[in-house]
Structures are given as C-alpha cells and as structure tokens.
Amino acid sequence: MAPATSTLRAEAGRGALPRRALAQYLRLLRLYPVLTKAATSFFFTGPLSHYFYLFLERWVPPEVPLAGVLKLLLDRVLFAPAFLLLFFVIMNFLEGRDAAALAARVRSGLWPALQVNWRVWTPVQFINVNYVPLQFRVLFANLVALFWYAYLASLGK
Asked: What is the DSSP annotation of the chain?
C-alpha cells in the first residue's frame, strides 16, 4: 500500500494536474484534431467571442457613423490583447509553470503575437463585423482560427 500512496503524493506535486491535462489535450489534438478544436471552441472561444460580438452590437449600433470601423477598433484594441493574454495564462497553467514563467513568456511573446494577430485578424475582423451576420460571426472567426492557433502553438516551441 505504501508505493501507491507515495505515487499519489508525487503526482499531487505542484503542476502535476495541469501537466496531465495538457498532455491529455495534446494527445486528443493529435488523435482527433478537428473534434478537439471544435470542443475547445465550443466551451471556450465560442462563448467569449459570442458575448463580445453581442457587446459590440449593443455598444456600437449600426446607425452610428462609421460603426464598422469603431467595432473593428474596439476588437483590435480591447479583445485581441485580452484574448492573447488569456491564451498565455491558460497555456502557462496547463504547462504547470509559475507566475515568473508567465511574466517572462508575456514579456517575450505577447507583443510579437499581437503584431501578427493585428496583421492576420484585422482584415478578417473587418469582413466579420461589417459583412457577416451576427449569428455567423463566431463560426466565421473559428474557421480562420484553426490556422491562427497553429501559429500560436508554434510560439511555444
């Protein structure tokens, strides 16, 4: 009985659960990439984006002059940096790293990722907020996001 107890204590150490969760997520991503990204989008990206698009529609109604440009600016200045920071925080947690590692990763990776985000997502979001009906905006963004997440994952390597 003692070996099982010591194994449990060793696994209960700092970062064991997040590392196991990340390993399982990466395993599922490798085995079932489309299904895994769909589930991630359904539970995480989808709701955040959905409520942000609703917020944009309420805060900047279509009747406002240059409403599309204002929505685009709000998306690029508020949502993009916050969402990228959240991505870094979640990845840091899943990798079992501490706050110092997160700070280092944010200092070294957030600005380059944000610059690429602005280059890639600004035209996408311009189309999204100006031409895609509200009920399809999350779907449109998620189609583009498949490629964007591949880029973000490559930053960690």
From this structure: -HHHHHHHHHHTSTTHHHHHHHHHHHHHHHHSHHHHHHHHIIIIIHHHHHHHHHHHHHHS-TTSTTHHHHHHHHIIIIIHHHHHHHHHHHHHHHTT--HHHHHHHHHHHHHHHHHHHHHHHHHHHHHHHHHS-GGGHHHHHHHHHHHHHHHHHHHT-
